[in-house]
């Protein structure tokens, strides 16, 4: 399955639009990670535990969106976007959404050498 934030896919054409598909997950923070994050605030730098948690949440959201698209018979999802919302102070939702489509590969016709028109030969 091809997934892209763009509205088109090079070398392919959209033959059918199947509708909006989505996938989401809600993740809660871990108390142990909060303690590490508090310490990291003192010295600065990336909070790797949260970075990893958010990356996993994005992947899970994408996987669920792809499953939704497959149920519709899609072989691609275009215009893919992510949304995030906080449900409470310790939980966030990650939403992936896009347009499920059916695409087909564009066949390229090889051009032969240019031929002169008969008018150009009669001279």
Question: What would you say this structure looks like, in words?
Answer:
With 123 residues, the chain is an alpha+beta fold. It has one domain: Hypothetical protein apc22750. Chain B (Translation Initiation Factor IF3), CATH 3.30.110.70. Helices cover 33% and strands 38% of the residues. It is built from 3 helices and 4 strands. The protein has a 4-stranded mixed beta sheet with strand order 1-3-4-2. A hairpin with a 2-residue loop joins strand 3 and strand 4 (91-105). The radius of gyration is 24 Å and the shape is elongated.
Produce the secondary structure layout.
Elements: E1 2-3, E2 12-28, H1 31-43, H2 48-71, E3 76-88, E4 91-105, H3 118-121
Parallel strand pairs: 1-3
Antiparallel strand pairs: 2-4, 3-4
Q: Largest sheet, described in full?
A: 4 strands, mixed
CATH-defined topology: Translation Initiation Factor IF3
| The CATH C-level class name | Alpha Beta
Unreliable stretches (pLDDT < 50, length at least 5) are none
* CATH arch. level architecture: 2-Layer Sandwich
Q: How many strand elements?
A: 4
Quick check: average pLDDT? 84
Strand line-up of the largest beta sheet:
1-3-4-2
One letter per element, helices H and strands E, the order comes to: EEHHEEH
H/I helix tally: 3
Overall radius of gyration: 24 Å
Helical percent range? 25-40%
Count of distinct structural domains: 1
């Amino acid at each position: 399955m091809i997934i892209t934030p763009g509205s088109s896919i090079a070398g392919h054409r959209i033959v059918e639009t199947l509708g909006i598909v989505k996938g989401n997950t809600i993740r809660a923070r871990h108390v142990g990670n909060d303690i590490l994050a508090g310490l990291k605030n003192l010295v600065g730098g990336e909070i790797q535990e949260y970075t990893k948690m958010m990356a996993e949440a994005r992947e899970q959201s994408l996987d669920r969106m792809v499953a939704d698209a497959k149920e519709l018979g899609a072989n691609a999802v275009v215009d893919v976007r992510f949304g995030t919302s906080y449900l409470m102070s310790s939980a966030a939702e990650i939403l992936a959404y896009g347009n499920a489509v059916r695409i087909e590969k564009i066949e390229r016709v090889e051009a032969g050498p240019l031929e002169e028109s008969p008018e150009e030969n009669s001279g």
